[in-house]
Amino acid sequence: MKFFPDDAPVEPGDNLKAMRVSDLLRMATGHQTEPPRTLETPWVKSFLAHPVPFKPGTHFLYNTPATYMQSAIVQEVTGSTVLDYLQPRLFEPLGIANPTWEVSPQGISTGGYGLSIRTEDIARFGQLCLQKGMWQGKRLVPEAWVEAATARQVSNGSSPTSDWDQGYGYQFWRCRHGGYRGDGAFGQYCIVLPEQDAVIAITSGLKDMQSVLNAVWEKLLPALKPSILPADDVSRSKLDRTLRGLSIRPQTGSGTPAKGSGKKYVFPPSEHKLQMIRIESDNTGGAATLVMRFDGIEHRVICRRDEWTRGKSAWGSLQERSHLREQPVAASGAWTSDDTFKAKLCFFETPFVISIELKFTGDEVNYLARPNAGFGPKNEFQLTGITGEVSAASDQESLKSLK
Fold first, then answer.
1. For a Cys staple, 253 with which of 187, 281, 334, 387, CB 3.0–4.6 Å?
2. Long-range CB contact pairs, 61-65, < 8 A, 24+
């Protein structure tokens, strides 16, 4: 409360007044549900206005806005975003180049999500924790803080088979087998195993996150030994061949461009922010440029049949809380029939691979998008567009009947 008195409710409750920074760190704010994050209300104000039915420190709730509040406090105290504050203190010493972090509408680093770094960078952070804050002979983080942050600070369940029931520290999950971890949506992991002197960094894109941890415990953990393993050239060669052969299959198809190819199709207003789409195809159907306008910005993605082409693009809202700004993308697309175009967009620096299907009928196009993962129970969305322009307000009004 003392950090944001101007955003506090007129009559704050006792539980809100008792909430401490340590309660934010432990996900024990006293909330029963997560505070909302919308464009209409500043996120700090929404957090402080949300009911706090439990005494802070007594009730665990995984609470992304609580992490956002920590980020907001850092910015309030230092005048810098968390990203800028950590640049000379953490990222540069660890050799983490070009980290990016999404921001709220108020220009505050989102804190609980939206930090993009490489898998190798995640491993470096884990190694820093394993070494209790030391890096190349220099102390970056106090040892006492690492020990406290990675210890069990609050109970969060009792299932012996769930890695989400082993306790929670200061923004770290406790794991089975004496470990701890940071994790992110759809299978981003930084697992630290102090007893084995090991760090495991994983990036993936799937909904069943426990399955990834199960594979670590069942396959990798038993192979970790207290002494150096002897060289195994045969197994290493097999691993190298396997890794070289891993790929996502490009889009195949043998159709020819539909009559709708080259036309501009506009869409009614929606949370997905797609306003217009057009396909510019060559005569053979072997290559096409997917032209999309999201939230007023036009993006062009080259798609080729049976191969991947790299470029950059953004994507509209995948689910209620997920929006991709412009990112590197590998695209592949083809006409699978004379009225249907399919494409795969692999945003290879994120967890997301998005499959889209465009089916042309007369003056309409049916647009179906299937992300491989997303927040909420539904992992696909469908829109209908008609030939026309998107610039005039009257066009948007005429499209409302299609919503």
1. 334
2. 61/27, 61/28, 61/29, 61/31, 61/32, 61/33, 61/34, 62/27, 63/27, 63/29, 63/31, 63/34, 63/35, 64/34, 64/111, 64/112, 64/113, 65/34, 65/35, 65/37, 65/112
